[in-house]
């Protein structure tokens, strides 16, 4: 009799524990599927306010806010070529309430900052890619003081007179910097890099003849090219641009296999739940289909590039060894 009572209590206790355990699963699922349920979403931009990346991030945040019916605020955490803000996001909970808006230095900057030491963050492991937003080519332009009309002529002069041709960039590790370093490496020429704290001062020095070359976004240099104040030689993308259809690509003009594009994308901390990743990617893709975003991107000479999180991750994984090899071989270090 006592044994039956004890067994009955055990059975009741086991059943109660089983029920409690089962009840936990719907709660976890709802916490994911109901996202965003409460609170404000932060989108971290690791660059200064007013830059083109910041402007685009605010437009994307505004559009996503409307689609998600959730407040999204853009917060700038600049410094160290984007590393400070990016590292901040890597250390946040993967709950969908902290996002990162980044561009090409996402991959190169931590390698340059770290040197031979531990990376401040691992672009391939510490983040969940949400989706790529857009890509844009760069335009290689030279000073009018330089009497060359093609990229091949420029490279021939640089090869004949190593370390006599200088080029400017928006800073060490910027896409302007890395694009020209890759060109130098593939074309076997040696150029002098002059980093600035932004592209504006570099363009001023190019116009004044104090620099010989820059690789820059089309909107930033095309007005000068059209006005005859600098000369365009080639475009860095894999295909020609409708904005300069007669201008060859670098690969066509002189360096087969060369291709570099500026890109923008959105990330979250690693281990973001799959349903939140998919929801964000879906809403982002829908936003990129709107005519207003196409118009905004066109001002940057960019085109939309909606891809899946998995494809975006594959792109990151493919770019990591390419830039690591270049950084090591060119001895690129933080200034």
Automatic annotation (TrEMBL):
InterPro entries: BUG (IPR005064), Bug_dom1 (IPR042100), TAT_signal (IPR006311)
Transmembrane segments: none
SUPFAM superfamilies: Periplasmic binding protein-like II
Organism ancestry: Bacteria, Pseudomonadati, Pseudomonadota, Betaproteobacteria, Burkholderiales
Membership in a protein family: Belongs to the UPF0065 (bug) family.
Organism: Paraburkholderia domus
One Pfam family linked to the record: TctC
Coiled-coil annotated residue ranges, if any: none
Protein name: Tripartite tricarboxylate transporter substrate binding protein
Alphabetized PROSITE patterns for the sequence: PROKAR_LIPOPROTEIN, TAT
């Amino acid at each position: 009799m006592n044994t039956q009572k004890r067994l009955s209590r055990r059975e009741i206790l086991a059943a109660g524990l089983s029920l409690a355990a089962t009840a936990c699963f719907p709660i976890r699922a709802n916490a994911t599927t109901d996202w965003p349920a409460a609170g404000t979403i932060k989108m971290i931009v690791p660059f200064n306010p007013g830059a083109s990346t910041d402007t685009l991030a605010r437009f994307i945040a505004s559009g996503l806010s409307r689609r998600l019916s959730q407040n999204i605020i853009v917060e700038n955490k600049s410094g160290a070529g984007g590393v400070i803000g990016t590292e901040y996001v890597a250390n946040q909970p993967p709950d969908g309430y902290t996002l990162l808006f980044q561009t090409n230095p996402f991959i190169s900057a931590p390698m340059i900052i770290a040197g031979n030491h531990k990376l401040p963050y691992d672009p391939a492991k510490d983040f969940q890619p949400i989706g790529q937003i857009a890509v844009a080519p760069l335009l290689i332009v030279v000073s009018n003081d330089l009497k060359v009309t093609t990229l091949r002529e420029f490279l021939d002069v640089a090869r004949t007179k190593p370390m006599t041709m200088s080029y400017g960039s928006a800073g060490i590790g910027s896409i302007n910097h890395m694009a020209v370093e890759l060109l130098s490496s593939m074309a076997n020429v040696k150029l002098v890099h002059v980093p600035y704290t932004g592209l504006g001062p570099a363009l001023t020095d190019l116009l004044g003849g104090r620099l010989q070359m820059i690789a820059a976004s089309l909107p930033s240099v095309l007005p000068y090219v059209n006005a005859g104040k600098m000369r365009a030689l080639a475009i860095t993308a894999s295909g020609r641009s409708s904005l300069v259809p007669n201008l060859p690509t670098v690969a066509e003009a002189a360096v087969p296999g060369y291709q570099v594009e500026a890109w923008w994308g959105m990330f979250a901390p690693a281990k973001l739940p799959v349903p939140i990743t998919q929801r964000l990617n879906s809403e982002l893709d829908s936003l990129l289909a709107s005519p207003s975003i196409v118009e905004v991107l066109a001002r940057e000479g960019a085109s939309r590039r909606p891809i899946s999180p998995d494809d975006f991750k594959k792109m990151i994984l493919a770019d990591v060894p390419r830039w690591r090899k270049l950084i090591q071989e060119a001895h690129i270090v933080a200034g």
